[in-house]
Write a structure and sequence with these properties.
The protein is 43% helix and 14% strand. The protein is α/β, with parallel strands linked by helices and 251 residues long. Strands 1-2-3-4-5-6-7 form a seven-stranded parallel β-sheet. The chain has helices at residues 7-10, 26-37, 53-61, 81-95, 114-126, 140-147, 167-176, 191-200, 204-215, 228-236, 244-250; strands spanning 17-18, 42-44, 67-72, 100-105, 130-136, 154-158, 179-183.
Length: 251
């Protein structure tokens, strides 16, 4: 298991919700409230998602007992301290909170030294605006550079049954007590996926998520959905244990 207080980052359950398609209408706000009632404890968003509507919906839902993760600094030049500070302030207003549970640097800015960006985020953490800091789309070397400045709680990269470029990073994160958050966790797949799902009488998505959860104790998938039934099915993967044969067939 991970060595730091994972509940504060994971939100008590190892499957979260990606919200890159979420808008701020009343139906979406109600969906978030119902999702939390169904057991969701971790929500992932970003400053740029749906033009800011994703964050606004989460703020309007007034959710309790949920870790909300957001991101800033996606485009070139946005890793500059003053730009990131403005995005962070906007996220705080949209989310209607004084402290963001987990704040990612969305992309390493090639125009700004990573150490300068992380020092700025460390100042926001010390001021109480951020509880934990993460990185997105990075490798081990970049995480090492960043955590020489400030502790890194989570790393978010694309990873699924077909996209396996972060295998080494996942092992490293687990050893270092860093949560690995795979985005697009349901993309791709293998012929065995449908066979296993059919034999088990469950959805392929549930099997894919169960495989990710077994892949590493550091794993926190964030499948995106706007459907409450799909969200409940995703959360049900927490109760699905693959056999050794099933796991290896997908591996």
């Amino acid at each position: 298991m991970l060595c730091f207080t994972t509940v504060t980052v994971l939100g008590e359950a190892r499957i979260g919700l990606g919200t890159n398609r979420l808008t701020d209408g009343p139906e979406q706000v109600r969906f978030l409230q119902e999702a939390v009632a169904a057991g969701l404890r971790h929500i992932d968003t970003a400053h740029v998602y749906t033009g800011g509507a994703s964050e606004r919906a989460i703020g309007a839902a007034q959710l309790n007992g949920v870790v909300v993760a957001t991101k800033g600094g996606r485009r070139p030049g946005e890793g500059r301290p003053e730009v990131l500070a403005a995005q962070l302030e906007q996220s705080l207003r949209s989310l209607r909170t004084e402290t963001i549970g987990l704040y990612y640097l969305h992309r390493v800015d090639q125009e700004t030294p990573l150490e300068e960006t992380m020092a700025a985020l460390a100042e926001h953490r010390d001021a109480g605006r951020i509880r934990h800091i993460g990185l997105s789309d990075v490798g081990i070397a970049e995480v090492e550079r960043a955590r020489a400045v400030v502790p890194i709680a989570a790393v978010q990269n694309a990873y699924n049954l077909s996209e396996r470029g972060s295998d080494e990073l996942i092992e490293w994160c687990a050893a270092e007590g860093i949560v690995f958050v795979p985005y697009f966790p349901l993309r791709g797949g293998k012929p065995a996926l449908a066979d296993i799902a059919r034999r088990r009488g469950v959805s392929p998505a549930r099997v894919a998520l169960a495989w990710l959860l077994r892949r590493s104790p550091a794993m926190l998938p964030i499948p995106g959905t706007l459907s409450l039934s799909h969200l409940r099915d995703n959360l049900a993967a927490l109760e699905l244990e693959l056999t050794d044969e099933e796991y290896e067939a997908l591996r």
